[in-house]
Every structure is written in structure tokens, then in C-alpha cells.
């Protein structure tokens, strides 16, 4: 008779003594790298971090204060400029018109210019630039002061400098024309020519045509007709009829010199 396979033995389940309670599993303990928590490692540097934050806050405060001061200054300057321009743009009334208290106006350009200069002095501002101030001085009849003001702006590389050099040349030529002494007149015209020659050296720059026209005009006053004619032709070429006002002036000058 074949042997029957023996049943596999099974391990007996652990028995809990009667009356005993099973203990719950313990939660895993946190593991600290190097034996310290993040806060523990941060504590020694708290002072440095706080100091750094205070420094950054101070720097930002300074930046915002400076920006605020600049904006405030710009607002103040804008308000002063508006006050000056309000006077400068006031109309000149006709000879028979009576002043209207509600609408400021002036009897002539000289009177208005004097009011503009007075407003600038009261506002303690040089708003408008050297060319604007010089123009007001000129209208007020202060030729020498206007020339001095134009000289302040001749080194400017923007359109302000171009206008100052142009204004300087015009006033020097005007002053020279009033000279009774031939030598003084000659010197004044040569100074005016130098101002106009430096007015706009860039062939594609603003008011280049006017710079050439002024040079030609002064050369004509100096008795150099051939040089004047060549410069008028050059001005005509530079303008290309873009500005009809100066184009008409050039044509008249060339016609007087016998040009077709």
C-alpha cells in the first residue's frame, strides 16, 4: 500500500495571553540631517539676514525718495513754464482796442516780452531754454543781453543749439548793420558769418537750408557776390522746394544776382 503524503505542517499563530492588549505601532521618528533641524541651522544667521533686509529696505527707500523728488521738481518746473508761456502767448491788441481785464493782452511785442521776463524773474525759472530767453530779451529791446544769452546755448548739440547759433548770427548782423565805423561793421559781419557757418554743419540736419541762406546773405553784405550766389544755389539745392517760404526768398536773391 502506497504511503500517503504527510500534510504540511503549519506554524501555530502567536497567541496573546488572555487579558493582554496589543500595543499600537510607534510612528516613525523624524530624522535630522547632521542632528539639526532647518531652524536650528538658520538661527545663527538670523542677525545677518535681518541686517541685509534692513539695508535693502533703506536702499529702496532712498531710490523712491529720489524719484519722488525728481518728479515733484519736474511738476514744479512744468507749472512755472506754463505760467511763462501763458504770458508769452497772450495776444497783442490792435491800436484801437481797449484792454480787457478778463483776457490779458499787450499793446506791442516789447511790452509783452517785458512781462514774460518779469514773470520768469518772479518764478525764479529759466524755463524755455536760452533761445527762448534771448528772443524775449531781443523783443524787449535788450540787444546786448540777447547776444549774451544766445552765446550760452551755442554749444548745445540739439536743435536748441542750432537756434541759438542762428539767433546769435542774426543779432550780430543786426548790430553790425547799425555800426557807423566801417571797420566795426566789417568785424561784426565776419562774426555773424562765423556764427552762421557753425549753425548747422550737418548737411542733413535741421535748418541746414537756413544756415546756407544766412551765410549767402552775409557774403552779399560783405560785397562777395560770387560767393553769395554760390551759397544761394547750394541752399536751393539743399531745400529742394520742401520749405516754400525759404524757397521764395532764395529765388528772389538769385534773381537779384542775375540767376535764371
Task: Describe the fold and architecture.
By secondary structure, the protein is mostly helical. It has a domain at 63-127. Helices cover 63% and strands 0% of the residues. The protein contains 10 helices and no strands. The protein has helices at residues 38-42, 46-88, 109-123, 129-139, 143-153, 159-177, 182-199, 208-221, 225-239, 244-256. Helix 3 packs across helix 4, helix 5 runs antiparallel to helix 6 and helix 7 runs antiparallel to helix 8. The relative contact order is 0.05.
- What does the largest sheet look like? none
**Rg (CA only):** 44 Å
**DSSP summary, beta strand count:** 0
Question: Helix segment count?
Answer: 10
The amount of helix comes to 55-70%
- Average pLDDT value? 80
Beta-strand content estimate = under 5%
How far do the termini sit from each other? 148 Å
Uncertain spans, ≥5 residues at pLDDT below 50? none
Class by SSE composition: mainly alpha
SSE order: HHHHHHHHHH
Shape: extended
Q: How is the topology of this model organized?
A:
Blueprint: H1 38-42, H2 46-88, H3 109-123, H4 129-139, H5 143-153, H6 159-177, H7 182-199, H8 208-221, H9 225-239, H10 244-256
Label this structure with key terms.
mainly alpha, 63% helix
Provide a brief overview of the structure.
With 260 residues, this protein is an all-alpha fold. The protein has ten helices and no strands.
Amino acid at each position: 500500500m502506497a504511503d500517503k503524503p504527510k500534510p504540511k505542517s503549519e506554524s501555530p499563530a502567536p497567541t496573546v495571553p488572555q487579558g493582554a492588549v496589543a500595543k499600537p505601532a510607534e510612528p516613525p521618528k523624524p530624522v535630522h540631517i547632521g542632528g539639526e533641524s532647518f531652524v536650528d541651522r538658520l538661527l545663527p544667521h538670523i542677525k545677518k539676514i535681518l541686517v541685509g533686509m534692513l539695508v535693502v529696505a533703506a536702499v529702496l527707500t532712498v531710490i523712491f525718495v529720489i524719484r519722488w523728488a525728481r518728479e515733484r521738481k519736474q511738476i514744479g518746473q512744468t507749472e512755472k513754464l506754463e505760467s511763462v508761456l501763458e504770458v508769452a502767448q497772450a495776444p497783442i491788441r490792435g491800436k484801437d482796442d481797449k484792454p480787457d481785464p478778463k483776457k490779458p493782452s499787450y499793446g506791442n511785442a516789447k511790452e509783452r516780452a517785458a512781462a514774460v521776463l518779469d514773470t520768469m524773474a518772479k518764478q525764479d525759472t529759466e524755463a524755455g531754454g536760452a533761445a527762448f530767453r534771448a528772443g524775449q530779451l531781443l523783443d524787449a529791446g535788450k540787444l546786448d543781453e540777447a547776444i549774451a544769452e544766445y552765446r550760452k546755448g551755442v554749444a548745445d548739440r540739439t536743435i536748441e543749439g542750432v537756434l541759438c547759433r542762428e539767433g546769435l548770427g542774426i543779432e550780430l548782423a543786426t548790430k553790425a548793420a547799425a555800426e557807423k565805423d566801417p571797420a566795426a561793421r566789417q568785424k561784426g559781419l565776419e562774426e555773424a558769418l562765423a556764427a552762421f557757418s557753425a549753425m548747422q554743419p550737418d548737411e542733413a540736419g535741421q535748418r541746414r537750408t537756413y544756415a546756407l541762406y544766412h551765410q549767402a546773405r552775409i557774403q552779399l553784405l560783405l560785397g562777395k557776390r560770387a560767393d553769395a550766389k554760390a551759397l544761394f544755389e547750394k541752399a536751393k539745392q539743399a531745400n529742394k522746394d520742401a520749405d516754400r517760404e525759404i524757397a521764395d526768398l532764395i529765388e528772389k536773391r538769385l534773381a537779384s544776382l542775375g540767376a535764371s
